[in-house]
Amino acid sequence: MNVEPGHTGNPRRNSRLFIILAAVLGVGVIAVVIFLLIPGPTPEEVARKWAVDNVDAAGEEIAGFILGTLGKEGLEGKVLTELGGEWIEDRINEHLTWTFSTATPDGAGNQIVIATGSVEFQVSRPPISGRVQAALPFRLLIDGSNVVDEQVILADASFDAELTGIDTQLIPSGIDAGIEKAEEGVDKLKGLLGQ
After folding, report:
1. Per the confidence metrics, is the pTM higher than 0.70?
2. Buried b / exposed e along 118-137 (16+ C-beta atoms within 10 A)
3. Cα torsion angle, 142, 146, 149, 151, sign
4. Phi then psi for 103, rounded to 5 degrees?
5. pLDDT digit string (tens) for 51-80?
6. Contact partners, residue 158, CB within 8 Å, separation at least 6
7. Helix residue ranges, H only, 38-74
8. Calpha distance 128→50 (Å, rounded)
9. Could you write out the three-class secondary structure of 78-140?
10. How far apart are CA 122 and CA 7, in angstroms?
11. CA–CA distance, 156 with 122 (Å, rounded to integer)
């Protein structure tokens, strides 16, 4: 068998090899094109994923907001503190719902989505009963498919509570404070009377 100069090997084998290489290259090009055409997650989808991944942290922020709004010195704050932060966080985790704003550009190539966590739950722990409602917005800065910064927006937060039975029970620390004030009043009165 004579092989012509410039030809190497079996021509059929070379054409099969060429077809296989062309098919592999074609499949690779199609895969790259499909990958480039599939859009990434929207900023709103990224915000929803953040909310799912940060339920506990958001719950702690909302619980802190509720207790802070009631006031550490107020009777309501003391009663809810007596209920326990864990109890409040459990109610928040059970009843937490989210709403998301439409994404807006920040001017630096990122997107901003406001994710607002809202809760409304009943309090039924004798002698206290009623309901608590709160909403706490988080400003999420989104770069591509990642939340790169988050900030609580207290100015836009809301809170409402209707609780009954709080004035029917004195908390021991409240009793101590009341006794001290009464003693101070007696001392002032004795001073005025010259005793």
Report:
1. no
2. bbebebeeeebeeebebbbb
3. positive
4. -65, 140
5. 999 998 998 899 888 877 766 555 555 656
6. 133, 134, 135
7. 43-53, 55-70
8. 35
9. HHHHHHCHHHHHHHHHHHCEEEECCCEECCCCCEEEEEEEEEEEEEEECCEEEEEEEEEEEEE
10. 87
11. 23
